[in-house]
Design goal:
Helix content: 25-40%
Distance between the termini: 40 Å
Number of helices: 6
Strand content: 15-25%
CATH superfamily: DNA methylase specificity domains
Strand order of the largest sheet: 2-10-7-8
CATH topology: Adenine-n6-DNA-methyltransferase TaqI, Chain A, domain 2
Largest sheet: 4 strands, antiparallel
Number of domains: 1
Length: 230
């Protein structure tokens, strides 16, 4: 029985198990004319939030923002109206503390990972990810460039192929490290980052999320076209 995964592209045919590799995935990635390298070569730190069972985190209005999957928007992380928890609580673990520039990726689920829910945090608000969000800290590559690439057909084809098994979709750390990203000049990466800062973040911070999402789509479309035609 084939598993329905609502692919972004009709050529992403369904598979029977996570090890199945259909040529359509490689055909899509082959459209990238830039050299590719595993994302793991640029990962300095990867983790997820604390797993605390049997109770909800007590709220502390002056504590850390607890970032869940619902806070990950195309334009960035929505830190308003989040639960805040005490820094010394079991949920406030140091390894899961978020820094500006961290790439946050939904860990699992049809409503999050399967919708390619990810975001770069640009705010300096004290925050921590919960157990359903992966924190990926990068070095040597622009996080906004990586996020934009993972939203292109070239990036999403790789994520879609790796969605695991017949239960809830998920990506593990090794699979995140295995995602291939373009190796391009710093100027190209900085252009994506600058456009995000100038065209997306002001709308995001004004909570004009639909306009911000459209601005992200424009950046992604331009990057995808450039990667396929350079």
């Amino acid at each position: 029985m084939f598993i329905a995964r609502r692919p972004q592209d009709d050529r992403l045919v369904q598979r029977l198990d996570p090890g199945y590799w259909h040529p359509a995935y490689e055909a899509i990635l082959a459209q990238c004319t830039a050299p590719l390298a595993p994302l793991g070569e640029f990962i300095a730190h990867i983790t997820y939030g604390a797993i605390v069972t049997g109770r909800r985190p007590p709220q502390d209005p002056d504590g850390l923002a607890l970032i869940g999957q619902g806070a990950l928007l195309d334009s960035g992380v929505d830190l308003e109206r989040l639960t805040r928890i005490a820094a010394d609580s079991p949920w406030g673990i140091e390894r899961a503390r978020v820094r500006p520039g961290d790439l946050l990726i939904a860990r699992s689920g049809a409503g999050s990972l399967e919708k390619n829910r990810l975001a770069v945090c640009h705010e300096d608000t004290p925050a921590v990810v919960d157990c359903f969000v992966d924190l990926v800290r990068l070095e040597g590559i622009d996080p906004d460039f990586v996020a934009a690439f993972l939203r292109t057909r070239l990036g999403w084809a790789q994520i879609h192929r790796l969605l695991n098994g017949v239960g809830p979709a998920n990506l593990n750390f090794d699979e995140i490290r295995s995602l291939r990203v373009p190796v391009v000049d710093d100027q190209v990466q900085q252009r994506v980052g600058s456009r995000h800062a100038e065209e997306v973040l002001p709308l995001h911070r004004a909570r004009r999320f639909e306009e911000a999402r459209q601005a992200v789509r424009a950046i992604v479309a331009e990057l995808e076209e450039w990667l396929a035609s350079r």
